[in-house]
Design goal:
With about 110 residues, this protein is an all-alpha fold. About 70% of the residues lie in helices and about 0% in strands. It is built from four helices and no strands. α2 (about 35-55) packs antiparallel against α3 and α3 (about 55-70) runs antiparallel to α4 (about 75-100). The longest helix has 22 residues, at about 75-100.
Length: about 110
């Protein structure tokens, strides 16, 4: 049932994007000041995707969130570390423990 639901939602959101496409500015009118920020986010997400099965869920998500918060958003290192570890552990608890979803272990023994 879940794949059918996800596919249905993807179709619905795709149709919503197509319907609202006329409201966005033309390609030539877009300001590209935020392009370096977007490229950093894409690079970090692509690296995390490549390392996900090798390093595992906990390590990859912690490092990705830390890089996004500290390096991209330029927050303090202690706050970035605390948020990235906390969010990752909460997500691990939710997916692995409560939802019983298999997550890659990677280099972690659990």
């Amino acid at each position: 049932m879940l794949p059918t639901l996800v596919i249905g939602l993807m179709i619905l959101f795709g149709l919503a994007l197509v319907a609202s496409a006329g409201a966005s500015p033309r390609w030539a009118e877009i300001e590209w000041r935020d392009l370096p920020h977007a490229l950093r986010v894409i690079a970090i997400a692509a690296t995390a995707t490549a390392l996900y099965t090798v390093l595992g869920f906990i390590v990859t998500m912690s490092l990705m969130l830390f890089a996004l918060i500290f390096a991209v958003e330029r927050r303090r290192i202690v706050r970035a570390a605390a948020v990235s570890i906390g969010v990752t552990l909460l997500a691990y608890l939710l997916f692995n423990t409560l939802l019983k979803s298999p997550l890659p272990q990677g280099i972690m023994p659990f």
